[in-house]
Amino acid sequence: MIKVGVSVLILAKNEERNIKDCIESVKAFADEVLVIDDGSTDDTVVISESLGARVVHHSMNGDWGRQQTFAIEQAKNKWVLFLDADERISKPLAEEIVEIVTAGDENAYWIQRQNKFKYNEATHGILRPDFVNRLFPKKGSYVEGYVHPTIITPYNNKKLKNVMYHYTYDNWDQYFGKFNNYTRLAAEKYRKNNKHCSFLKDVVLRPAWAFFKIYVLNGGFLDGKLGWIFSVNHYFYTMTKYVRLYYLERTEGKL
User: Fold this and answer.
1) Which of these, 38, 143, 163, 222, could form a disulfide with 60 (CB 3.0-4.6 Å)?
2) Using one digit for the tens of pLDDT, what is the confidence trace for 189-243?
């Protein structure tokens, strides 16, 4: 496989368990692998550099969008490909990316992400496959948003045929660690955007709808026990971020 002019952008912090497999899934075709390191205290940087990646140290400060925009600005190539440390590019997808970049067909390309969970097979509910915008020309592109950022590009959207893999959680401590971090960041984002919390609508009713959507409409029940667990956790995830917003408002004396 030939190398093409694409910069793979990986945001990382303490990802020594994931970073090797992540980089190895792209180094056969990517002209540049760029790791933006947010103060790792493990061997993330050492492993990345040993595999030929360029590491830039830059603090995220809880702002994913700003960090991703910074990463785009550091890329040396015309094309950029965002990849999380726990994601892997499949060989058929790598070949498809090479074709796209070689042809120079400037669009924003969405890639289907298939989730892999360590303990059981789960392909519905919150672990159902989803499409994410990851491959696009650098020029005119940037990212907005704290927790679930949005990539902004001036290009038309297209979907690629092949998939990448997302290795979600190695253990439940990791799962609930992200649960705690993401609900806090979500509440802070809502507060910054002056979003208000209604106790009845957001703390009581919205979580119930979130559970119904994941478990019933998105087929979480088809994943058996694990589907039930993830659907209930999604209920509490939704409730927790709004509870945090509810009390952020009162702590700040806004209501």
Assistant:
1) 38
2) 888 888 999 999 999 999 999 999 999 998 999 888 888 999 999 999 999 999 9
- Residue indicated by tokens 């915008």: 133
29 pLDDT above the threshold of 70: yes
For residue 142, CA distances in Å to 78, 145, 186, 241 come to 14, 11, 20, 26
Q: Which residues contact 42 (CB under 8 A, 6 or more apart)?
A: 14, 15, 16
% of the chain residues with pLDDT over 90: 69
Q: Which amino acid is at 49?
A: E
Query: Is 108 in contact with 35 (CB distance < 8 Å)?
Result: no
Quote the pLDDT of residue 125.
Answer: 77
